[in-house]
Design brief:
Blueprint: E1 5-10, H1 21-26, E2 31-35, H2 53-65, E3 72-78, H3 80-94, E4 103-106, H4 126-135, H5 141-144, H6 147-165, E5 179-184, H7 191-194, E6 206-210, H8 216-219, H9 221-233
Parallel strand pairs: 1-2, 1-3, 3-4, 4-5, 5-6
Length: 239
């Protein structure tokens, strides 16, 4: 029987630790889904929102480093979570921890993509900001069309967009771990920006496409968990 592998999941902009419930429901028994919580939302809503991306990366590092034991683990993130998964892995490397078996990224360009900071969506007025989120398929309509829910989520979304849009890429030697990058066929991203993920690992990146817009992950949650599970199950670890 295969040993349990922890999959640390990092939420997208506006998300929280409950964002990947479907993944938990569909994961095989050997895969333990551990969704991390960002400050300022969910069960940490009384804490201030992160002021910059390094603050959030340090917060995630503290969470994960406290949970690392002798077992194997991998890291997954969607959109902002994909960037944070990369930065968390760099932080773990810097501090001498065993690296994840695999880095799984969905719905975002490579960290070095200049397009990441071209728009300053977090500075838009409310009407334009909401219109931009709708265009990006960045939040369910049930939230965007509900004033009470929007009152709660708008500051979180703006904060998440801000730290992503103000992120300054620092070039580092490639990681020596496998990376899988999955994007939606209808996402507003250039192919060359997606392929910039290859800069971040010495191993060939497995680039995949699934039908859909930015939140294709919920249309294809079983398929994504299947991809992750197969790669981790057949990794060369003790059975």
């Amino acid at each position: 029987m295969k040993k349990t592998t922890n999959l640390f999941c990092l939420p997208f902009a506006g998300g929280n630790k409950y964002s990947y419930r479907e993944f938990t429901e569909k994961a095989p028994s050997f895969l333990n889904i551990v969704t991390l919580e960002y400050p300022g939302r969910g069960n940490r809503m009384r804490e201030p929102l992160p002021s910059d991306i390094n603050e959030l990366a340090n917060d995630l590092y503290k969470q994960v480093s406290a949970l690392l034991g002798e077992g194997d683990y991998a890291i997954y993130g969607h959109s902002l979570g994909g960037l944070m998964a990369y930065l968390l892995t760099r932080k773990l490397e810097e501090n001498g921890h065993k690296l994840p078996l695999h880095l799984f990224i969905t719905g975002t360009t490579g960290p070095s993509a200049l397009s990441r900071s071209e728009k300053k969506r977090h500075l838009l007025n409310k009407a334009d900001f909401v219109a931009e989120i709708k265009e990006l398929d960045g939040m369910p309509d049930e939230i965007l069309n509900n004033d009470e829910l929007l009152y709660y989520f708008e500051p979180i979304l703006r904060s998440d967009f801000k730290i992503s849009e103000e992120y300054s890429y620092q070039e580092s030697p490639p990681l020596d771990i496998p990376v899988t990058v999955i994007t939606g066929t209808e996402e507003h991203m250039e192919l060359e920006d997606i392929q910039l993920w290859q800069k971040e690992t010495s191993r060939p990146v497995d680039f995949k496409k699934l039908p859909g817009k930015h939140f294709f992950i919920f249309q294809h949650s079983f398929k994504i968990i299947e991809i992750i599970s197969k790669k981790l199950y057949f990794h060369k670890t003790p059975f």
